[in-house]
Amino acid sequence: MSPFGPLEALRAKPIPNQDSARSARQGFRSLPIDADEALAREPLVRIAAEGIAGENYYYSTRNPPYWGRIEGSIPELYLRRSVALKLARVNHRLSAAGLELYVFDAWRPRAVQVYFHDVWMPRELARRRPELSGEALTREVERYWAAPTRDAASPAPHATGAAVDLTLRWRNGEALWMGSIFDDATEIAHRDHFERASDAGLCFSDEEARANRRLLHWVMTDGGFVGHPEEWWHFSWGDQLWSALTGNGSAFYCLIEPSEKNG
Length: 263
Fold this sequence. Notes:
This protein is an alpha+beta fold and 263 residues long. It has a single domain (5-107, 159-252), classed as Muramoyl-pentapeptide Carboxypeptidase, domain 2, CATH 3.30.1380.10. It contains seven helices and seven strands; from the N terminus they run H-H-E-E-E-H-E-H-H-E-H-E-E-H. The longest helix is centred in the middle third of the chain and has 19 residues, at 110-128. The radius of gyration is 18 Å and the shape is globular.
């Protein structure tokens, strides 16, 4: 009998082709945010208070490919209250199979966003793809790292507390194999990467990664979240990306900072 129990069927359900999501993502930060919506004033909460496991990847020193704490990072993991509660409901569903969510990153300080957008990713691309420059370089950077801003009408997703990076693991145990490390900013991280390969071209490891990505995608999608098409780990609810991918007329969440009340 499968250890995944009632969730086994999701491991066999293909992730849809993500090309439409890639198209919808273009210009998503120009979509309106409804500042009059009650959710817009919702606070950040620590996800641990909702029973959600995780460790801030950028504060850790065990964080390939960086292998060091990122300046400006914080140990805490915060999300908007409604987003954290939705994750808790996903966790409840996963518990039937002995699984749980494990969070790498949630609300993100601006300093971390600036470092990766302005320094780390351009430097890495210069090493890997020296032919890129100008607008082409910027486009490639922003496939994975949103431009930081203080513009309330166009926030980076993680700055809203509505975006979260996560994976699946056995409860208090090992993470499921997803086919790449977190933050692998190459095509292997694309949500549908393993769906595009023929079964004959997949090794056992690839087949396992495909099944596990499917499971993560569907439990999160069923929970109301949308996924970044280029990153298997990134999901959000209530931000501009969610608005773009669901067709909702506006987003709920804008820029926010933690306060003492969040502690």
